[in-house]
Structures are given as structure tokens and as C-alpha cells.
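Hi X.,

You mentioned you wanted examples for the new student's onboarding notes, showing what a folding record looks like when two proteins sit in one file. Here is a clean example. The first protein comes first, with its sequence line followed by its C-alpha cells.
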Amino acid sequence: MTDEELGQYIAKYGDRLALRAFCRQRAVTNETSGGVETVRSALLMKKVRDRLEEQRRTPARSPPDTEGRGIGNKYAAKVTRRVEMGWLHFSTQSGAYRQIRTRNGGGIRNLTVQKSVTVGELLETGKSLFFPNGRSAQGPVEDFEFDIRDYSHNVLPSEVTVGQLYDQTKLRMMRIYTASKPKTVITLSDASDVESTDEEIKHSTLNDGLSSSLPASPDHNGNELFVTLRRVNIVDDMLQVFMEPRVLQRDLKIEFANEKAVDSNGVSREAYSAFWECFLEQCEGEDERVPRLRPDYSQRKWEALGRVWLKGYKDHKILPIRLSLAFVLACCQGLDSVDEELLIVSFSRFLSEHERASLEKALQGSFDETVEEDLLDVFSRMGSHCLPPKDNLRAAIVTIAHKALLQEPKFIIDCFHSVLHNAVPDLKTKDSLIELYESKRPMNKKVAQIIKPSCESLTPQEQTTLNHLLRYVRSIDQRKLETFLRFCTGSTVLCKNTIELTFNRLSGLSRRPVAHTCGAVLELPCTYSSYPEFRQEFDNVLCGDCFTMDIV
């Protein structure tokens, strides 16, 4: 092509020169390489043609269906689905299920399963994942009850399949949980499974086989509920038992973990006493106390607490008299049943002894600088930062008493009321409740009067020991008196008409008092040489771990 002909396509002369130079260089390269580029392209094209021809001659084969799709159709319905599985464990402290983290053996596991796999089969998979070799950080697999729960923590039926769950929820990724719950807190068994025993039931501070006339007699009525409680976790374990309302209709039989005892009412009384002692330590107040709302207590837990109160009173006449009188009356008969007089009485016992004295002086019109300082502290603690006028003092005290005893625990009162209302016909009035509290309150003279020897004729040594015991009971303070009563009967309040006294002749290191709480029987050695010796040994018993059941 001449320059004139090329100029018809490329107007600029410099561009035409550059094009000619490029063409000459390309031609030289092809000549020196011997047509390598052409040969390489031809070879590649031949390989492509050969492979296509081979595919035409050979029937088509699909790779293994790893994704669960239909043959020849990547958009066909899957036969497998992915599932995420976590671990929920029931917390006895909060009364709810909590997710277990990866560092504690939980976490989220990713599974690929057939759509036809059922929830029951997934449960076995979850046990093997979170309980490898049958154990986990929470304990062995035998100690728990299991089920499968969905993303809302609702229990799933065991016969439902994975495909059905995906169809129902329309989720892109299904998450389920293996839920575990301890089954050591409450143990159900029929009365026929309980072996009757003629061994005696004893309550002592040392392991020793002493004779007794108190046989265990289980009631084979088929309505018994056997419960194992841990003394170190008595509050949570007891509330867990009473979460179910039906426990009020059962014959409750209690035992303590790792303690030797058969319950013929003595162990049950000890369990209720230990429960209320631990629970009231968490409440507000002094001589009388009021529970306060807690973030870890739900409505079901407060209702369970009301059932503990009701069951303990109906079965064993145990009453936590340190629970505020005004609070209990409001729980039984409503807020309107609490009058001003009862409010002031309960509020004074709610305060410390020093503040109580100042409050009584102020109500009598006796004011001084100390009384005003104490009253200001009380009003400040209740939310008021100034003292009311003297002519309006009683009304102001009633107001803060109503706030502290009734308004702040109003939700708790409503939960109790749903359980206690009309459940105890004897407690319909304020006077009946006050009378009941006074009858249950242990006093030195009343406790001494219910101590009765098992036989009328006593030897001189036995009479001396009886005199030592009566002298001791009449002289101890209120706190130690309640401990003595609980040691003998299992209860810190008066729930038995008599404490039977028997004697033995133990001496040396084996000498100590032995209490049989089921029958309220106290065995005393009659080998004490003096009252100081008797008092020292009995003080040592009551100050130690005297409530552990360690003899059967």
C-alpha cells in the first residue's frame, strides 16, 4: 500500500510512519520465531476440540452430591441443611437457663444434617458434643435432664424434623440449644420404693451408735415427694423445689446431701429452719425483717417463697417470726388490714435497739439532742432529709413505716398474697396473727417448762443433771435459746409441746448431749461434777456445727 492510499485512512504523516515501523518489526519477529505463536495457538485449539469431542462421545457424569442438590440441577431442593447448636444450662441461683460459653465447654457448633433428622436425634448429638465421654464442666451427663430448645428457649417436640423446623420458621439459619437441668435438687420416687427401717433417728455432733427408742416410720401413701437439699445452698435448692404449686399437696420428705438422717419430721423442721435463717440474713431490718426486691428473683421465685412459708406452717407449725408482722398480715389479708398501731410496732422492731428507744421517746414527747439525731438518721435513710414538726411526728412515722414495710416490697406482697390468701383460716385478723407470733416466740421460762424427764423417778445424779439443764435454759440469752431449741426440735420457734429428757452415763471424750429432732428427745449424760462443767460443754456444742445430721 502506497503512502497516498494509506493517507486516505490515516491523515497525519507521523502516524503513518509509526504504523509502517510497527508492521516491519512484527514481520521480522514472525520470521525469526519460525511461527511459534501460530503453532502454539493451533495446539491449544486442537486440545480444546479433542476435549469437546471426547465429552460428546462419553455419557455425562456428575460429581458426588456434596451439597445435597439434585443431579444435573444446581437449583434443586437440598436434602441437607445447616444447623447451629448451642448449650443452655439451668442456673439454680437465677432460676433460668443461661448459655454456656466456649471457654466453659459450650459455644456455638455448626452442623450439616439431613432434613429428615428429628429433634430427638439432635439431642443425642448435642450430648456427645457438650458432654464428651459423658462429662462436662457442669458435671456428668447422668446428673442432668435434657431437651432441645429453639432460639426463643421453647422446648421442641422430639418427633419434629429439621425440614419441618425450617418450613415453620422461614429462617435462613436455624439455631437450636441442647438444654440441661440438674436433677439432683429434687428427686421424685414412690413411697413403695422407700425401704422401711427400724434404725433410730438421731441428731448429734459426733458419729456414735447410741441406743434410741425412735423408729423411722415412712408413710406408704403413694403421695410422698423425696427431696435432697444441699445445706450450703439451702435457699436456692428449697426455692427450686417449691417452684411447682403441686408440692403443697405432696407429703414432703427431706434429706441433706452427705448427711445421715431419715426424715420423720425432724429433718424437715431443720430444713425449714435453716432456710429461713439463711434467707432472712439477706433481708432488711433487725428484730423484724422485710425482704427486698432482687434482680435475680423473678415472680415465680417470690411465689415459691410464699409456698415455703405456707408449707412449713401447715405441716410443722414453723413460723419465721423474724419476718415482719405487718408484712405477713398484708400478705395474708391485704394492705388494708394493717392499721397504724401495727405499723408502728413492726417498724420499731424493724429498727435497731438504739433507734427503737429513740423512736419510743419521740412518740412519748420526750425530745433531746440524741433523740433528734437518731430520728434524723432514720428519716434520712427512708428518703426524708428533714424532721417533721413535733405535732405531726406520729403521722410522719406512720408514713415512712408504710413506705419501708409495705410500699417498697409491694410486688413481693402481691406474690405472697396469691399463695397465702385464705390458705390459713386461723390468720384472718390482726389479733390472731399477733397471738400466733407470741405463742411461737421462745422464752426462757416457756422452754424450761416444756422439758420433761421420760420417767418420774430420778436418781440423784439424774436429778442434778436436770437441775443443771433447767438452770442453763433459764440463764442463756435469746439467740442461744433459739439455738438450743433448734438443736432439740429442729426449729427455732415453739412447735413441740414437750422436750423429752433421757439420761445416759457417758464419760470422757464420748460424753456429750445427743438430740433426736424427730421426737424432740434430748439425751444427757448424768456424769457432770458441777454446773460450770455442764455449761461449758453445752456451750461448746451449741457454738459448733450442732445441726449436722450425722447419726442414723
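Then the second protein repeats the pattern, sequence line and then C-alpha cells:
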Amino acid sequence: PEETVTSSFAAFIHAVRPEHLSKTVCHRSKRMILDSIGVGLVGSTTHVFDIALQYCRLYSSVAVSSVYGKPGVKLSPTLAAFTNGVATHSMDFDDTWHPATHPSGAVLPALLAASQMLPPGTKPNGVDFLLAFNVGLEVQGRLMHFSTEAHNIPKRFHPPSVVGTMGSAAATAKLLSLSAAQCAHALGIAASLAGAPMANAATQAKPLHIGNATRLGFEATLLASRGMEANPSILDDIPGCSGFSAFYSVYQPKPLSTPSDHHEFLLEKQDIAFKRFPAHLGMHWVVDAALSVRNLFINYAGSFSPSLIRTIVLKIPVSKYINRPFPSSEHQARHSFQFNACTALLDGEVGLSSFTESSIHRQELRELLDKVVVEHPEDNVANFDKMYGEVALLLHSGDVLTGKCDTFYGHWRKPLSKESLLKKFRSNASHVLPEEKIETIITMVDNLENLSDSSQL
């Protein structure tokens, strides 16, 4: 039969082998796995996670898969994937790639649940798990590269709800050893389960986008493994009958080459961004710019004295859903340039406690927010590879102090060190796990290639 874009993806998923993973890809993906588990564990302390868990416990029949931060609690595999996906994105603390999406949270929970679902003697080892994880990343990345629209901060669909669902289907199809034809059908089914609107950003519904992506992609694989069929050309651009192209106004798909000794995964070329605090990635530019100008201000005035500030000017990209002058909830605050810049100015840091009700509604913070003016320079584009953050303090004295950030610490151009990543993981995991278990997870992920049973994760 004639090769299509979809069949080339299916053939890749079916044929790729562990030896195709380079040392760089293995190293970077294990960092992603560790970080994703950590943000999922701390996410299990949130209110939105509690809602998701209560819902899933009502409908969980074959309870074999674990839930982040809840020892002894088991759910059915797809509902465990959903719940852990919600936990991963509940604080907006999960990793971000370029083009823009949250790749790990859409894939890892499904793989963890699927590993526990399989009977003894058939469970995948650590190498198989790592390969499936990277298949899920690769499919997401390749799909994002089909559209120039996907390179910028999104306006219509939340990317992980689109490509993440496809990545989950690809990853679980690989882990469960589906045939090439079944892989194609899994992708087709997943496309019918994908998509969530950007209007639900900065609400409790946004974490559902990751939960649904990892769950529904997994369900697509399970349906395909039982014989359900879908359009075998779902990724192809067929005029007059949109497939995956329905999610993008510009869509130019390309076949994915059959893996060979020289296959280069996208993760080899494009590293990942890890967040230092739980908020939308764009906030990290303005926070680092704010911390920079705060230091200048303290050197100038001797201490941080808000009364000396007349106006705070933020120079940021145009992006409606993260331009929120006066956020009233934790989820809005995580998506507010103004809130994060002013919190950094006031406190000298942004962290988990910054997004509590008491912190959000402080009078001194409101007074700073009242001084903010936003500007959108033409050269500051809404693209995580090109944007910058600039914070200027216009003082009553007439002096102006300015801080600017082109690349924050944690961005793929300035990756977190091993020490910083481990510090973040230990801090997140300590909210729900004892030190001994935390160190066990670190060791298991670091030695994932030697793990005989990945369900132990």
C-alpha cells in the first residue's frame, strides 16, 4: 500500500528500538520523568486534584494503578492516568517544550498506569518504558512542527490537549506492543478525543487538559488493541476532509522516517524547560527581570520601599490569557504577568506559598499592582524561544531603574543543573513522601535502564 504520513508515524512507533535512543536523549528524558513525578506529587496536595480523585473513585472498578501522593489508593488504569495527569498540571509546575506544549504530563501518567495494568511476567522493563516515553515525546514534537502556528503561545487550543493526546496514544501503543496497523488506528481514535479551548486557561479546568490527554490517548490505544478502527490517514492533509489538520490554520505534514542507526530524536536537538516556581512559563521571564531590578532598587534606596515607586512598566508579549492585571484566584495568579512581577518585587522570590489566598489578596501587593503599566514592544513576540521580559521602575525622584531577562534559569538555553533539578524534586516530593522513598525514586529514575519491572516506579 502507498505510504502516507499517518502510516509512516505508525511504522515508526512500531519499529523504533531502544538502541535508537542516544545518551543525550536518555539523560534528558530521565530528567523529565523525575521532574514530572515531583510536580505530580506536590500537585496531589491541591484542591483540583482532590476533586478529580473523588470523581474517579466513584467509577473505578478494576483498581490496579497507583495515584500520586496517595499510598494505598488504587484506581482503574485510565482513571489513574487521568488523576495523575491532573496532579501534574494542577500548579502549572510541569515542563514545557518548544514548540509550546507540556510533553511529560501527557505521557508519563499513562505509561505508569499501563505498566501496573499488565499481569506479572509481562510488565515492561525500564528500557522499554524509557523508549515508550520518548516515542510519546517524539510524536508530540513532530506534530507541533507541522504548523508554524504552533511555534507561538497558543490562542485557540491548549497544545497538550491536542498533541499530548496523540503522544499518549503513541507511547502506550509502543509500551503495549501494538502492530503498525493498530498504531495508526490508535492515532486516528486519539484525534477524535483531542482538543480543549484556551479560554479555560487560568481556571480549575485547565489541569483537566493534561488529565484528559494522558487518559484519552491511553483509551485510544486500548480501543485499537481490541479491534476498533479509525481513519488510517488521520495525520495527512486531505483537502475537503480535515483530519488532524482541523486543529491548525496552517498545516504541512511530513512523513516520519523509519528509525535507523542514524535517527535523531527531537529531544536531541531541542532540550526542555523546567520551571523553578509553579506558574505559566512566560512568568519566569518577568520574575527574573523583576528580581534583577529589585536588586538595583535596594542598592539605590537601601531597602525595597514601594512608596518611592511611581510606576512599574512591564514590557511583555501580547498574550491575552496571561495579561491579568488583578487576578482573584490562584489559577489566575499563575497566569498573570503583573502578579508574578509584583510578587517578585515585594518578596524577592516566587514560590508555592505565593499563590495562597492570603498572599494573593495582600493590600501591599494590590498597591503595587495599581502602579503597573503594560507595554508590548514589537520585537517582543509571543514565542517561548524569542520573547523577553523587562521591568522598569519609574521613581518619584525621576530616576528609572530597569531589569531585563532574555533567558531565565531553567529555559532550554540555560538548563537547570542536576543539583537544582534534584532540589526541586526533593522539595516537591517532601510534601507527601518520607525522605527514604524520595531517594528511592531518584535512584530508580537515574538507573531506569537497569530496572527489570517499570511498574515499580
